[in-house]
Amino acid sequence: MRTLTCLSALLLSLPGIALAQNPIAALRSEPQPRVLVVGVFHFQDAGHDTYKPQFPFDIRTPARQRELEEAVAKLAAWRPTRIAIEANPERQARLDSLFAVYPGNGMDSLRNEIYQIGFRLARQLGLPGVSAVDADGRSLDSTLTQEEWQRRRAALSRGPLSATDWDARFTALYRADDSLKTVRTLNQTLLYINSPDRLRAGHGHYLVGDLLNGELGGYFGADGFVSAWYNRNLRIYSNVARLIRTPEERILVIIGAGHVPILQQLLQSSPVLRLDDVSSVLR
Predict the structure, then answer these.
(1) Domains assigned to the chain
(2) Is residue 81 within 8 Å of 248, Cβ to Cβ?
(3) What is the pTM of this model?
Protein backbone atom coordinates (compact mmCIF):
# COMPACT_ATOMS: atom_id res chain seq x y z
CA MET A 1 0.00 0.00 0.00
CA ARG A 2 2.84 2.38 0.85
CA THR A 3 4.47 1.63 -2.53
CA LEU A 4 1.23 2.46 -4.35
CA THR A 5 0.89 5.72 -2.42
CA CYS A 6 4.43 6.79 -3.31
CA LEU A 7 3.87 5.85 -6.94
CA SER A 8 0.68 7.92 -7.07
CA ALA A 9 2.49 10.93 -5.62
CA LEU A 10 5.24 10.53 -8.21
CA LEU A 11 2.79 10.34 -11.09
CA LEU A 12 0.93 13.42 -9.90
CA SER A 13 4.20 15.32 -9.87
CA LEU A 14 4.72 14.76 -13.59
CA PRO A 15 3.50 17.84 -15.56
CA GLY A 16 1.36 16.08 -18.16
CA ILE A 17 -0.28 13.68 -15.76
CA ALA A 18 -0.81 16.33 -13.09
CA LEU A 19 -3.28 18.21 -15.26
CA ALA A 20 -5.19 15.03 -16.06
CA GLN A 21 -5.45 13.83 -12.45
CA ASN A 22 -5.33 17.05 -10.43
CA PRO A 23 -8.45 19.17 -11.04
CA ILE A 24 -7.04 22.06 -9.01
CA ALA A 25 -4.01 22.35 -11.28
CA ALA A 26 -6.28 22.11 -14.30
CA LEU A 27 -8.09 25.26 -13.21
CA ARG A 28 -4.87 27.24 -13.71
CA SER A 29 -3.44 25.40 -16.70
CA GLU A 30 -3.98 28.22 -19.18
CA PRO A 31 -1.69 31.29 -19.50
CA GLN A 32 -2.90 33.94 -17.06
CA PRO A 33 -2.82 37.72 -17.29
CA ARG A 34 -0.85 39.18 -14.39
CA VAL A 35 -2.00 41.83 -11.92
CA LEU A 36 0.04 43.97 -9.55
CA VAL A 37 -1.84 45.89 -6.84
CA VAL A 38 -0.01 48.85 -5.31
CA GLY A 39 -1.71 50.22 -2.21
CA VAL A 40 -1.05 53.93 -1.74
CA PHE A 41 -1.91 56.74 0.64
CA HIS A 42 -3.62 59.66 -1.04
CA PHE A 43 -1.02 62.24 -2.00
CA GLN A 44 -3.76 64.88 -2.08
CA ASP A 45 -6.50 64.13 0.43
CA ALA A 46 -9.96 64.39 -1.10
CA GLY A 47 -11.69 64.45 2.29
CA HIS A 48 -13.58 61.17 1.79
CA ASP A 49 -11.90 59.20 4.59
CA THR A 50 -12.77 59.52 8.27
CA TYR A 51 -9.18 60.33 9.24
CA LYS A 52 -8.00 63.68 7.91
CA PRO A 53 -4.22 64.03 7.41
CA GLN A 54 -2.54 66.24 10.00
CA PHE A 55 1.01 66.28 8.65
CA PRO A 56 1.87 68.07 5.39
CA PHE A 57 3.12 66.06 2.43
CA ASP A 58 3.90 67.59 -0.95
CA ILE A 59 4.90 65.16 -3.67
CA ARG A 60 5.95 68.08 -5.89
CA THR A 61 9.07 69.05 -3.93
CA PRO A 62 12.37 68.22 -5.69
CA ALA A 63 13.30 65.58 -3.09
CA ARG A 64 9.91 63.85 -3.30
CA GLN A 65 10.01 63.97 -7.09
CA ARG A 66 13.33 62.11 -7.05
CA GLU A 67 11.77 59.49 -4.76
CA LEU A 68 8.77 59.28 -7.05
CA GLU A 69 10.98 58.70 -10.09
CA GLU A 70 12.65 55.82 -8.26
CA ALA A 71 9.31 54.21 -7.42
CA VAL A 72 7.95 54.76 -10.94
CA ALA A 73 11.09 53.18 -12.42
CA LYS A 74 10.52 50.05 -10.32
CA LEU A 75 6.90 49.83 -11.46
CA ALA A 76 7.88 50.44 -15.08
CA ALA A 77 10.32 47.52 -14.88
CA TRP A 78 7.32 45.27 -14.20
CA ARG A 79 6.19 46.22 -17.74
CA PRO A 80 2.48 47.02 -17.28
CA THR A 81 0.26 46.93 -20.35
CA ARG A 82 -2.59 48.72 -18.55
CA ILE A 83 -2.74 51.03 -15.55
CA ALA A 84 -5.91 50.98 -13.45
CA ILE A 85 -6.61 53.85 -11.07
CA GLU A 86 -9.07 54.75 -8.31
CA ALA A 87 -11.69 56.65 -10.26
CA ASN A 88 -15.18 55.66 -11.38
CA PRO A 89 -15.62 54.67 -15.04
CA GLU A 90 -17.96 57.65 -15.43
CA ARG A 91 -14.81 59.82 -15.19
CA GLN A 92 -12.99 58.03 -18.00
CA ALA A 93 -13.65 60.69 -20.63
CA ARG A 94 -12.39 63.38 -18.26
CA LEU A 95 -9.24 61.37 -17.50
CA ASP A 96 -8.62 60.83 -21.22
CA SER A 97 -8.87 64.56 -21.88
CA LEU A 98 -6.41 65.31 -19.06
CA PHE A 99 -3.98 62.68 -20.27
CA ALA A 100 -4.08 64.14 -23.77
CA VAL A 101 -2.46 67.34 -22.45
CA TYR A 102 -0.13 65.69 -19.90
CA PRO A 103 2.49 66.89 -19.19
CA GLY A 104 1.86 70.56 -19.80
CA ASN A 105 -0.80 73.16 -19.17
CA GLY A 106 -0.34 72.71 -15.43
CA MET A 107 -1.36 69.06 -15.40
CA ASP A 108 2.01 67.98 -14.04
CA SER A 109 1.43 70.15 -10.96
CA LEU A 110 -1.56 68.09 -9.77
CA ARG A 111 -0.64 66.21 -6.60
CA ASN A 112 -3.02 63.25 -6.71
CA GLU A 113 -1.39 59.82 -7.14
CA ILE A 114 -3.54 59.28 -10.24
CA TYR A 115 -1.53 61.96 -12.03
CA GLN A 116 1.79 61.67 -10.19
CA ILE A 117 2.09 57.89 -10.58
CA GLY A 118 -0.57 56.75 -13.05
CA PHE A 119 -0.23 59.44 -15.70
CA ARG A 120 3.55 59.63 -15.41
CA LEU A 121 3.97 55.88 -15.75
CA ALA A 122 1.52 55.62 -18.65
CA ARG A 123 3.34 58.39 -20.52
CA GLN A 124 6.75 56.80 -19.92
CA LEU A 125 5.53 53.42 -21.17
CA GLY A 126 3.78 54.87 -24.22
CA LEU A 127 0.34 53.68 -23.09
CA PRO A 128 -2.79 55.44 -24.38
CA GLY A 129 -3.87 56.47 -20.87
CA VAL A 130 -5.17 55.03 -17.61
CA SER A 131 -8.29 52.97 -16.86
CA ALA A 132 -10.86 53.97 -14.23
CA VAL A 133 -11.90 50.92 -12.17
CA ASP A 134 -13.36 52.31 -8.92
CA ALA A 135 -17.02 51.90 -8.03
CA ASP A 136 -19.63 52.98 -5.50
CA GLY A 137 -20.60 50.23 -3.08
CA ARG A 138 -24.15 49.13 -2.30
CA SER A 139 -25.21 47.93 1.13
CA LEU A 140 -28.06 45.53 1.89
CA ASP A 141 -29.73 48.30 3.89
CA SER A 142 -29.48 50.83 1.07
CA THR A 143 -33.10 51.99 1.56
CA LEU A 144 -32.45 53.38 5.05
CA THR A 145 -32.41 57.15 5.40
CA GLN A 146 -29.46 58.69 7.25
CA GLU A 147 -31.75 59.57 10.16
CA GLU A 148 -33.12 56.03 10.43
CA TRP A 149 -29.60 54.60 10.19
CA GLN A 150 -28.40 56.80 13.06
CA ARG A 151 -31.45 55.91 15.17
CA ARG A 152 -30.97 52.17 14.68
CA ARG A 153 -27.25 52.44 15.37
CA ALA A 154 -27.82 54.28 18.63
CA ALA A 155 -30.29 51.61 19.73
CA LEU A 156 -27.83 48.73 19.35
CA SER A 157 -26.96 46.97 22.59
CA ARG A 158 -23.26 46.97 23.47
CA GLY A 159 -21.43 43.69 24.00
CA PRO A 160 -18.27 43.05 26.02
CA LEU A 161 -16.03 43.17 22.93
CA SER A 162 -17.20 46.68 22.07
CA ALA A 163 -16.18 48.17 25.45
CA THR A 164 -12.81 49.22 24.03
CA ASP A 165 -12.85 52.35 21.90
CA TRP A 166 -11.57 50.78 18.68
CA ASP A 167 -11.98 54.00 16.70
CA ALA A 168 -9.51 55.73 19.02
CA ARG A 169 -7.00 52.89 18.63
CA PHE A 170 -7.18 52.93 14.87
CA THR A 171 -7.03 56.71 14.75
CA ALA A 172 -3.74 56.46 16.66
CA LEU A 173 -2.46 54.05 14.01
CA TYR A 174 -3.50 56.38 11.18
CA ARG A 175 -1.91 59.36 12.88
CA ALA A 176 1.36 57.46 13.36
CA ASP A 177 1.38 56.49 9.68
CA ASP A 178 0.54 60.06 8.72
CA SER A 179 3.56 61.29 10.67
CA LEU A 180 5.97 58.59 9.51
CA LYS A 181 5.36 59.27 5.82
CA THR A 182 6.93 62.70 6.29
CA VAL A 183 10.27 61.22 7.45
CA ARG A 184 10.40 58.07 5.33
CA THR A 185 11.18 57.89 1.64
CA LEU A 186 8.22 57.27 -0.64
CA ASN A 187 9.47 53.76 -1.42
CA GLN A 188 9.83 52.95 2.29
CA THR A 189 6.28 54.15 2.90
CA LEU A 190 4.87 52.11 0.01
CA LEU A 191 6.64 48.97 1.22
CA TYR A 192 5.29 49.54 4.73
CA ILE A 193 1.65 50.15 3.82
CA ASN A 194 1.70 47.12 1.48
CA SER A 195 3.25 44.82 4.10
CA PRO A 196 1.03 41.91 5.24
CA ASP A 197 1.01 43.05 8.88
CA ARG A 198 -0.09 46.61 8.04
CA LEU A 199 -2.72 45.42 5.56
CA ARG A 200 -4.19 43.01 8.12
CA ALA A 201 -4.17 45.67 10.83
CA GLY A 202 -5.93 48.23 8.64
CA HIS A 203 -8.56 45.76 7.48
CA GLY A 204 -9.35 45.01 11.10
CA HIS A 205 -11.05 48.39 11.50
CA TYR A 206 -13.90 47.13 9.28
CA LEU A 207 -14.40 44.13 11.56
CA VAL A 208 -15.18 45.88 14.85
CA GLY A 209 -17.66 48.59 15.83
CA ASP A 210 -21.20 47.87 14.66
CA LEU A 211 -20.32 44.27 13.73
CA LEU A 212 -19.81 43.56 17.45
CA ASN A 213 -22.91 45.35 18.72
CA GLY A 214 -26.54 44.28 18.82
CA GLU A 215 -28.26 40.99 19.60
CA LEU A 216 -27.23 37.60 18.23
CA GLY A 217 -28.95 37.19 14.87
CA GLY A 218 -29.09 40.92 14.20
CA TYR A 219 -27.02 42.13 11.24
CA PHE A 220 -27.24 45.90 11.23
CA GLY A 221 -23.45 46.29 11.09
CA ALA A 222 -22.86 43.57 8.51
CA ASP A 223 -25.69 44.73 6.24
CA GLY A 224 -24.75 48.40 6.32
CA PHE A 225 -21.42 50.11 5.72
CA VAL A 226 -19.32 46.94 5.80
CA SER A 227 -21.43 45.17 3.19
CA ALA A 228 -21.10 48.25 0.97
CA TRP A 229 -17.30 48.17 1.42
CA TYR A 230 -17.08 44.53 0.36
CA ASN A 231 -19.49 45.17 -2.51
CA ARG A 232 -17.38 48.09 -3.70
CA ASN A 233 -14.25 45.96 -3.84
CA LEU A 234 -16.08 43.15 -5.65
CA ARG A 235 -17.08 45.72 -8.25
CA ILE A 236 -13.50 46.97 -8.52
CA TYR A 237 -12.29 43.39 -9.05
CA SER A 238 -14.91 42.98 -11.78
CA ASN A 239 -13.74 46.16 -13.51
CA VAL A 240 -10.08 45.07 -13.32
CA ALA A 241 -10.85 41.63 -14.74
CA ARG A 242 -12.77 43.18 -17.63
CA LEU A 243 -9.64 45.04 -18.73
CA ILE A 244 -8.16 41.74 -19.94
CA ARG A 245 -7.73 41.53 -23.68
CA THR A 246 -4.95 38.94 -24.06
CA PRO A 247 -3.28 36.29 -21.86
CA GLU A 248 -0.16 38.48 -21.89
CA GLU A 249 -1.94 41.39 -20.19
CA ARG A 250 -0.14 42.95 -17.21
CA ILE A 251 -2.48 45.19 -15.22
CA LEU A 252 -1.07 47.57 -12.60
CA VAL A 253 -3.69 48.72 -10.07
CA ILE A 254 -2.93 51.92 -8.13
CA ILE A 255 -5.44 52.24 -5.30
CA GLY A 256 -5.91 53.29 -1.68
CA ALA A 257 -4.26 50.72 0.60
CA GLY A 258 -7.52 50.02 2.44
CA HIS A 259 -8.82 48.24 -0.65
CA VAL A 260 -5.85 45.89 -0.94
CA PRO A 261 -6.75 43.10 1.56
CA ILE A 262 -10.06 42.30 -0.16
CA LEU A 263 -8.66 42.74 -3.66
CA GLN A 264 -5.72 40.47 -2.87
CA GLN A 265 -8.05 37.72 -1.66
CA LEU A 266 -10.21 38.02 -4.78
CA LEU A 267 -7.27 38.12 -7.18
CA GLN A 268 -5.43 35.26 -5.49
CA SER A 269 -8.53 33.07 -5.80
CA SER A 270 -9.47 34.12 -9.32
CA PRO A 271 -8.77 31.39 -11.92
CA VAL A 272 -8.41 33.99 -14.70
CA LEU A 273 -5.68 36.18 -13.15
CA ARG A 274 -2.31 35.81 -11.46
CA LEU A 275 -1.47 38.23 -8.63
CA ASP A 276 2.19 39.29 -8.42
CA ASP A 277 3.97 40.28 -5.20
CA VAL A 278 4.27 44.04 -4.90
CA SER A 279 7.05 43.92 -2.31
CA SER A 280 9.36 42.09 -4.71
CA VAL A 281 8.72 44.78 -7.34
CA LEU A 282 9.27 47.75 -5.03
CA ARG A 283 12.43 46.26 -3.53
Answers:
(1) 1-30 (no CATH), 32-282 (3.40.50)
(2) yes
(3) 0.87
